[in-house]
Write a structure and sequence with these properties.
- The complex is a heterodimer of chains A (111) and B (110).
- Chain A has strands at residues 5-7, 10-13, 19-24, 31-37, 44-50, 53-56, 65-68, 75-79, 88-95, 101-102, 106-110.
- With 111 residues, chain A is mainly β.
- The model of chain A has no long low-confidence stretch (mean pLDDT 95).
- By secondary structure, chain B is mainly β.
- Chain B has one domain (4-109): Immunoglobulins (Immunoglobulin-like, Sandwich).
- In chain B, strands 2, 4, 5, 9, 10 and 11 form a six-stranded mixed β-sheet that branches. Chain B has a five-stranded antiparallel β-sheet with strand order 1-3-8-7-6, with no helix packed on it.
- Chain B is globular.
- The termini of chain B are far apart.
- Classes of the chains: A mainly beta (111), B mainly beta (110).
- The A-B interface holds A 31, 33, 41-45, 48, 55-56, 91, 98-105 and B 2, 32, 34, 40-44, 46-47, 87, 89, 92, 94-103.
């Protein structure tokens, strides 16, 4: 079975610019998560979708971050405007109710 | 509430055993374990549900004690491929999104 696809793999932007990440989960997985992983730390949950509805976005900095999951399949996470502290790996994961399958992530560097 | 992992780092010789602990200040009904190698995505190892069950994956097993609000991961006769950072994850409040610990770095030397 195909894994979780993410793009781009790497992104370098200047602070105050905007950036978008894309994720395509495993086919049939209703639950999709976006995590932020800062170097040396565990992944931190940003937002959880169940099909195309938001289940939990309590840790999403909504003044600059937004996410959507149209049609309950792929998802996009956007940052606008980016700050230096947003430099991290953004991981997408999907689940059918058990363990998570993570994508390879997007490494974002804000300069 | 972020689960607390211990130790922070472990260095072993190939063939030695290791135990990684994960504890929470709130009631748990499940614990996930993942392994992440440098520059790669976390990989799911196992999930433990309340009931004190133990599960295994190759020579890696784990236990879960919901009364003590803790889980332990056991790596037996460690292999070089076991090197990486191990994370435990516990469900949050209303939704089941995981909160991960800070990780335990495991280095296996030949």
């Amino acid at each position: 079975e195909a894994g979780v696809a993410q793009s781009p793999r790497y992104k370098i932007i200047e602070k105050r610019q905007s950036v978008a990440f894309w994720c395509n989960p495993i086919s049939g997985h209703a639950t999709l998560y976006w995590y932020q992983q800062i170097l040396g730390q565990g992944p931190k949950l940003l937002i959880q979708f169940q099909n195309n509805g938001v289940v939990d976005d309590s840790q999403l900095p909504k003044d600059r971050f937004s996410a959507e999951r149209l049609k309950g399949v792929d998802s996009t996470l956007k940052i606008q405007p980016a700050k230096l502290e947003d430099s991290a790996v953004y991981l997408c994961a999907s689940s059918a109710g058990g363990g998570y399958t993570f994508g390879s992530g997007t490494r974002l560097t804000v300069v | 509430q972020q689960p607390v992992q211990s130790p922070q780092a472990v260095i072993l010789r190939e063939g030695e055993d290791a135990v990684i602990n994960c504890s929470s200040s709130k009631a748990l009904y499940s614990v996930h374990w993942y392994r992440q190698k440098h520059g790669e995505a976390p990989v799911f190892l196992m999930i433990l549900l309340k009931g004190g069950e133990q599960k295994g994956h190759e020579k890696i097993s784990a236990s879960f004690n919901e009364k003590k609000q803790q889980s332990s991961l056991y790596l037996t006769a460690s292999q070089l491929s076991y090197s990486g950072t191990y994370f435990c994850g516990t469900p949050g409040g209303g939704a089941d999104g995981l909160t991960f610990g800070k990780g335990t770095h495991l280095i296996i030397q030949p």
